[in-house]
Amino acid sequence: MTDWNKRTNLVHGGIRRSQYGEVAEAIYLTQGFVYETAEAAEERFIEAGDDEFIYARYGNPTVRMFEERFAALEGAEDAFATASGMAAVNATLMSMLKAGDHVVSARALFGSCLYIVEEVLPRFGVEVTLVDGTDLEEWEQAIRSDTSVVFLESISNPTLELIDIASVSRLAHAVDAKVVVDNVFATPIYSRAFELGADVVVYSTTKHVDGQGRCLGGIVLGQREFIRKTLEPYLKHTGGAMSPFNAWVMLKGLETLDLRVRAMSASASRIACALEGDERLSAVIYPHLPSHPQYNLAREVLEEGGTMLSIVAKGGKPAAFKALNALKVFTISNNLGDAKSIVTHPATTTHQRLSEALREELGIDPGLIRISVGLEDTDDLIGDLKSAISAI
Ligand SMILES: *Cc1c(COP(=O)(O)O)cnc(C)c1O
Questions:
Q1: Which of 258, 96, 108 is nearest to 187 (CA)?
Q2: For a pocket test of ligand 1, which of 184, 336, 344, 351 has the largest count of ligand atoms closer than 8 A to its C-beta?
Q3: Which domain holds residue 231?
Q4: pLDDT tens per residue across span 5-45
Q5: Residues 282 and 345 in one domain
């Protein structure tokens, strides 16, 4: 780690140059590494040094550059990159937990995260209690003296509810439980998760970090002891490694991450203001709008409102579909954090698997449209949304 600021780390952090002195990071597209002698191989298997690699499932120079750059950005001691965001979430939880442990998790989770905590963990004897993440009393009641892990998404998908990481961490740390934060919606640019008390922070780098819809990736960040002693043995033997090519794409993504996220967030903020109050919408949800139920917390923990907003069309699914089909600049897809603006209808796609009752409990109205704001001209985006909404 260096004392550089974020934007310098995003460009220079973690650089490893070969003997050729290349300017752009090299893609070391190799699975294995050659040892000069049998003794050198033996030595390396006993303990690999910082710049020594054994097999790409364990580590690779391009992947290591990405991990070190990301750790410097987030202010973490160390990091391990994974094949996808879900590989990161799964490895984090599976490496920390054993049969008999107790986990408390927020209920408003990305579908695959919910699958892990609701279906996979209990199969291995881990007890899971789900809570309304915005309700501190529920956290307080659910966290027990034997709770070992607390899991949450800092900003929920797609209703953009914030969890008070500082307060939840205080409750968790009082019983020595570790706090794991899936921080995708906050982005590494606005993240303050470690400062607020998180022990482990996880990202799907498929989202803002790639930011141009190409590669899957994930990363787990935390203290060196956790990354090397708990997470690495699990990951290196179970095969969730990031490919060197994807790591290179992600490294290049980091270089422009700050610029992209800030531009997208400024645009999202303008769009939210432009749509609020439209009579065909029952809600415009954006963390930095004063109408957001947790506006004060959002102002306190998020420097900007972020790149995502949700709108709720009056008239449910038919109205939402009419608007979606009328859009010309926005594309209908389910990724987010992309240069291209994307709209999603969670009730029929990303959250289709949930029961209607759970969707209702999570506030996923059939009229809700999730909007990921990209890098297009903001006026074009506002115009596109306004004309689509007028088609309702
Ligand atoms: C996308 C996403 C994931 C999963 O990431 P993948 O890279 O698709 O595996 C996990 N959590 C959140 C909050 C996400 O948005």
A1: 258
A2: 184
A3: 6-253
A4: 999 999 999 999 999 999 999 999 999 999 999 999 999 99
A5: yes
